[in-house]
Design a protein that fits this description.
By secondary structure, this protein is mainly beta. The protein contains 5 helices and 26 strands. The chain has helices spanning 2-5, 14-23, 62-70, 111-114, 174-183; strands spanning 10-11, 26-27, 34-35, 38-40, 43-50, 71-76, 81-83, 88-98, 103-109, 118-124, 132-133, 138-147, 152-154, 161-167, 197-202, 209-214, 221-222, 235-239, 245-248, 253-262, 268-274, 282-284, 289-290, 309-317, 322-325, 329-337. A hairpin with a 2-residue loop joins strand 3 and strand 4 (38-40).
């Protein structure tokens, strides 16, 4: 299609996403939800509690699978509703896509969603994988929502995940990533580059604090209220261990921080990916998008500033207790080139809750 022919290879920037919204490629999207390299998706009024997580498969729509007996109850979100921990929900999103050939999409939970241990994945009609939107997809979007530790209150218009659109070849291989690091340091130290930029966990915190462990049976979290909650009501602090390691308890949720301070230059975007299961029985980082400008200072190109913000790690152990040591590799960051530099960067005249962050809980906490 004509739109696809005019697009350069790379992750699409906010101004290009806005143009696609105006042209009808993205329907019913709110321009105020634009981020430098993504669009925050919003819940519609229509939701279902479902029996289990599911994918439609390549031959069926989401509506057809719901009609098969997977839907337990339809829920009206217009006045708000509680999503209980341990349950699975499916919500139709307000936005709808009619992507040109050559333009694909990827979704991820927002940072604030991952930091309250809410598992959110995008589902499409005929979808064979979560969070992936094939090039040329035309149809509705759905969010599968599964709170793991805290029950949440959400409503029509709430935003729990975000969409990136990509065209052509965009991912940097290790050789290109090394060249980029030599030009603009991506971490404050030696870069571990092998299938992406390695990140390790810090167990040497400031003021003896290295992280937070979620409390069970806490109160409800309203996903739309910012700065409304006291951390001790929902998390217990983890002091720096004298042994140099902590033991992750099975099925418990932790907030930790990377040892490295990282940066994403303006002409690139990044995404955190889990390490191989062979390196540990735990999952890191539900929310993996890093916008252009994260941890980057505008004056750094002229030698006037130091780049870097800590990556916050959302950690959950699997079936067995697992020892996590200071400096242990826990995730990798893959970098992708932008098709164009965003008109506004992360932390630059937009609401960027985590720019310059250290160890920080979600925006819902004071």
């Amino acid at each position: 299609m004509t739109v696809a022919m005019t697009l350069k290879d790379g992750v699409l920037a906010s101004q290009t996403i806005a143009a696609l919204m105006e042209s009808g490629v993205i329907e019913r999207a709110d321009p105020s939800r634009l981020q430098p390299a993504s669009l925050d998706l919003t819940l519609s009024s229509r939701a279902w509690r479902v029996r289990a997580s599911f994918l439609p498969s390549r031959a069926r729509t989401v509506a057809a699978r719901l009609a098969d007996g997977l839907a337990m109850q339809e829920i009206d979100l217009s006045g708000g509703a509680v999503f209980e921990r341990g349950c699975v929900y499916l919500v139709e999103l307000n936005e709808r896509l009619a992507l040109p050939e050559g333009v694909e999409g990827a979704a991820n939970p927002k940072s604030s969603t991952g930091r309250i241990d809410v598992f959110v994945r995008l589902v499409t009609d005929y979808g064979a994988a979560f969070d992936d939107i094939p090039a040329g997809y035309s149809g509705p979007l759905y969010a599968e929502i599964s709170p793991r530790t805290f029950s949440i209150l959400a409503r029509e218009g709430s935003s729990l995940n975000q969409l990136r659109l990509k065209c052509g070849k965009f991912r940097l291989d290790d050789a290109a990533l090394r060249r980029l690091h030599e030009k603009t340091p991506l971490v404050d130290g030696v870069a571990d580059i092998a299938g992406g930029l390695g990140l390790s966990v810090s167990l040497q915190g400031e003021n003896n604090l290295i992280g937070w462990r979620a409390r069970r049976h806490s109160a409800l979290i309203d996903v739309d209220k910012v700065g409304a909650l006291d951390p001790p009501d929902f998390f217990e602090p983890i002091p720096a261990p004298t042994s140099g390691f902590i033991i992750l308890d099975p099925d418990e949720f932790y907030i930790l921080a990377s040892k490295e301070a990282l940066a994403v230059p303006p002409d690139y975007a990044a995404e955190m990916t889990p390490i191989s299961p062979g390196l540990g029985e735990f999952r890191v980082h539900y929310a993996g998008f890093f916008d252009p400008g994260f941890g980057w200072r505008p004056d750094s190109e002229k030698g006037g500033g130091v780049n870097g913000s800590r990556g916050v790690l959302e950690v959950r152990s699997h079936d067995a207790p697992f020892v996590l040591e200071d400096g242990q590799l826990v995730a990798r960051l893959v970098y992708e080139k932008m098709a164009a530099r965003p008109e506004r960067l992360y932390g630059e005249s937009i609401k960027s809750n985590y720019q310059g962050q250290g160890l920080k809980l979600s925006k819902h906490f004071r």
